[in-house]
Specification:
The chain has 146 residues and is α+β, with helices and mostly antiparallel strands. The protein has two domains: 63 residues, 2,3-Dihydroxybiphenyl 1,2-Dioxygenase, domain 1 (Roll), CATH 3.10.180.10; 54 residues, 2,3-Dihydroxybiphenyl 1,2-Dioxygenase, domain 1 (Roll), CATH 3.10.180.10. Helices cover 17% and strands 39% of the residues. It contains three helices and nine strands, in the order βαβαβββαββββ. Strands 5, 6, 7, 8 and 9 form a five-stranded mixed β-sheet that branches. It has a four-stranded mixed β-sheet with strand order 1-4-3-2, covered by helices on one side. Strand 8 and strand 9 form a beta hairpin. The radius of gyration is 17 Å and the shape is globular. It starts with 7 loop residues before the first strand and ends with a strand.
Length: 146
């Protein structure tokens, strides 16, 4: 049996803000968009589905930003504990953690300054920092040598 990963879906509260965040702060590019209706209600286990599915891509990685008109978005826009079951974070390799962290903040995300972790591994320096997208999805910025 052969499988491959297609994409990761993220429910967003404000599509334009999320597009700006993922494209301008993290380097994704706007890709295909779909208006989705109740034909996907069964799959999504929801009645009265109306949403816009907006893909963003960065190399081989695709994120599907889902913006629901109906039923409305639910839940809190807060960072989940890393040990909570389910997806924990999206990790992005960067050349400059500080520059990307500044872009994250300027585009509506938040930097979790207390998570900054920098250490030497042999003759290289590794640098990590957690931040969130505007809806609280945890994003790991990491600078690693090539």
């Amino acid at each position: 049996m052969t499988t491959s990963v297609s994409h990761v879906g993220i429910c967003v509260s404000d599509l334009e803000r999320s597009l700006s965040f993922y494209c301008d702060a993290l380097g994704f590019s706007v890709a295909e968009s779909h208006e989705v209706g109740d034909e996907f209600g069964r799959l999504m286990e929801l009645d009265g589905v109306v949403l816009r599915s907006q893909f963003v891509r960065h190399g081989a990685v695709a994120l599907e930003l889902l913006h629901f008109s109906s039923p409305p978005v639910s839940g809190e826009a807060v960072r989940r504990p890393i040990n909570q079951l389910g997806l924990t974070h999206i990790s992005v390799r960067v050349d400059d953690v500080d520059a990307v962290a500044a872009a994250v903040q300027s585009k509506g995300g938040a930097v979790v300054a207390g998570t900054r972790t920098t250490f030497e591994a042999g003759d290289v320096v590794l640098d990590f920092l957690y931040c969130t997208d505007p809806d609280g999805v945890r994003i790991e910025l990491m600078r690693l040598p090539d």
